[in-house]
Amino acid sequence: MNSLSSSLPILHIEGLNLHFDDGQTKALNGIDLDVREGEFVAIVGPSGSGKSSLLNVIGTLDAPTSGELVFRDQPYSKIRDASLFRRENIGFIFQAFHLIPTLSALDNVIVPTIGCDGAADDYKAHAEALLTQLGLRERLHHFPGKLSGGERQRVAIARALINRPRVILADEPTGSLDSANADQVLNLLTGIVKQQGLTLIMVTHDATVSARSDRIIYMRDGRIEQGVGA
Amino acid sequence: MNLFRFALDNLYRRPARTGLTVSAIALGIAAVVALTSIAWGFEASWQKANDARGTDLIVTRVASENTMPSPFKAEKVQQALAELPHVKEVVGLLSEMLSVSEDAPPVFVFGWVYGSYLWEHLKLVDGRWPASREEPVVVIGALAAEMLHKKTGDQVEIEGKVFQVAGIFESNAVVENGALLMTLDLAQQVTDKPGKVNVLNIKVDADATEADLRNIKEQVKQTLPGFVAITSGELVSKNAVVRISKAMSNATILIAGLVGALVVFNTMLMSINERTREIGILLALGWQRGTIMQLIVSEAVILSLAGGMAGIVMGVGIAWGLEHIELMRGKIDAIFSLPFFFSVLALSVLLGICGGFYPAFKAARLLPSAALRHE
Asked: To the nearest whole number, what is the mean pLDDT of chain B?
């Protein structure tokens, strides 16, 4: 943790608001947050507190109503192509895995590279290496329906990493897993993130998961609760 | 894994719907292929028959637009034509569609001037030719012989009169192969049209040029009011039946294209509604909107192309079947060509693009976060 304190923020958020229904619903309400490069930040809070909304805005899936977000030196407001920004910088992991059922584990990992420049063989080799690293060497050609929940989430992790992003956004990645699988997935994810020096922002309800983070952010009613956390 | 394979996988995911969509497109394309090939074949077979005879110009009534132009008294016109420069031979031709037995479909019966050049292109495969203008015999095309189950020496009854089959011939033109042939004098007697012909065929001498042919046309126009001299191609192309069949073929292309595009449109719209969340995932994973559009349009084009290919096979089968049913044998000769098949495939691709564009556009405009929340 202390080793991170001196590193520069990869993400700077200031006065972030996300309102719906002409301001009737305030999903995010004045969020200020800095996330440092290589940091593992856990976001916790009750349902409807704005955790996933914050992840969506950071991942450019939702545009904020107001406020400033800066990724390294690049303000979000200057991003011309959000898809390209996501592809180059963000890796998503979802609670429900969201794998494509008709594709094998290997092809699911390769899917984000479709439409990218670069050699297909290189992407395939990278995907195989990631799946091997995640313990799925023998499951490359298995379809999601033939994989356990833990294996599916490991495929999803490999998919999030295929484009070599700098930030991983994980929305309750262990929420659908039993404790043994959850522990295994978390170990693999944090291990790779640390090995590659990636930044991990994870929404979780699980105290044992958040306990392994560098910092815990508590959210309630679209705000970060000040004075609470690691 | 690439975009094409991903698109194929997506279609394979719903085999029943994909199969039904491809079948619907294939039916439309088959109708296009069958009707167009028959329309072209109908035109070409008549032109081939005229060309095979070695006729340079055909003289007929100005307003006549039938395959068999209405008959006219030939004598004076024939004399006038024979005096024109470079005209080597002028011979009359009478043709009718007649029944030759109760249980057989009607066939063409041609009456040609005995001993004229018209007979020269035919190949006698059995028996003999008529021995004189008046001999009460017919020769029949090989296909007609097969259809009517007749051979040399048999008898046929035409308009209540009995004729012996003197021989069997073959021709390059399917309309002649499926026809009965007799001398013009006999044909005029049988059809009760003494001295009348449907057309007069002009053969010019070897020295005649294109300019001479144009001159003959002009002379006919000026000296024979009510008549026109045209090439066999012109006669066929102004033929009402050919024009109607071509118009029907064009209408079928239009209808099949519209229906095909609508089928693709409906299928792809259903597909993207079902896959809204998946599209949201792809967007979240960094897919660009253009790539989403390419995926959906690719799926639409694969569907329509598969329908187009299946439709070509079906259309060829339908045309072949029509050629061989008793009623149509010897009357149509469907024409297929590679450029035509490529045009049909291009039409298929076009309707795929048209049908897939809006669903692709709609998919590409989805908001990733909303798409991910879609149930």
From this structure: 90
Check whether B39 has a pLDDT greater than 90.
no
- Please enumerate, as own/partner, the contacts of A52-56 that have beta carbons within 8 Å and a separation of 24 or more: A52/A171, A52/A203, A53/A18, A53/A27, A53/A28, A53/A222, A54/A16, A54/A28, A54/A219, A55/A169, A55/A171, A55/A201, A55/A203, A56/B369
Six token digits for residue B334? 């469907």
Helix/strand/coil for A70: strand
Q: Please name the residue ranges forming H helices in chain A.
A: 2-5, 51-58, 82-89, 105-110, 120-133, 149-161, 179-196, 207-210
A115 to B1: CB separation less than 8 angstroms, yes or no: no
Q: How far is A42 from chain B (nearest CA, A)?
A: 20
B286–A87: do the CB atoms touch at under 8 Å?
Answer: yes
CB contact under 8 A, A86 and B285: yes
Yes or no, beta carbons of B283 and A83 under 8 Å apart: yes
- Assign domain A37-60+79-224 to a CATH class: alpha beta
Tell me the chain A residues in contact with residue B285 when contact means C-beta distances shorter than 8 Å. 86-87, 92, 111-112, 159
Find the mean pLDDT for residues B122-144.
94
Residue B114 vs residue B375, higher pLDDT: B114
pLDDT the model gives residue B272: 93
For residues B83, B85, B87 and B88, what is the CA-based torsion angle, rounded to 10 degrees?
Answer: 90
CA distance B252 to B39: 12
Model ipTM? 0.89
Alpha-carbon distance B287 to nearest alpha carbon in chain A (angstroms): 6
Q: What share of chain B is helix, strand, coil (3-state, %, to 5)?
A: 55, 20, 25
The partner residues of A18 in beta bridges, in order of sequence, read A28
Q: What are the angstrom distances between the C-alpha of B260 and each of A32, B20, B26, B294, B312?
A: 54, 12, 9, 20, 14
Proportion of chain B above pLDDT 90, given as a percent: 64
> How confident is the model at residue A230, as a pLDDT?
40
**Interface residue B3 vs chain A (CB under 8 A):** yes
Confidence check: pLDDT of A47 > 80? yes
A-facing residues of B in 104-143 (CB < 8 A) are none
pTM for this entry = 0.78
Tokens of B47: 């032109």
Q: What are the extents of the domains in chain B?
A: 3-46+241-369, 57-230
